[in-house]
Amino acid sequence: MSDENNSRVDRPKFQGNWKCSQCATDITELPFEPDPARESQLLCLDCHKQKMADRPRRNDFQRRKYQGNWKCSQCRTAITELPFQPTPGREDTLMCRDCYKK
Asked: 0.85 cut: is pTM over it?
């Protein structure tokens, strides 16, 4: 990727005298102008990277599964697990994965 396509290269840096809210390291340069009301929440690069590594990634999210005994409204195949709670009284509109993809 060339420098022309990399927007981070052209990002202005803001100079100042701040402290990391976690490790108290001096911060003298930031890639954004900090909001004065939130300066007490600033993180140094190392603490920011650690925070990003510690938080759950979107792909790791496990959606709740609902167990039951339903039938596909199209092909009548048994459905035993769904990624949502079916609306009471509308179980006759459920579809198996194959019919839903069609």
From this structure: no
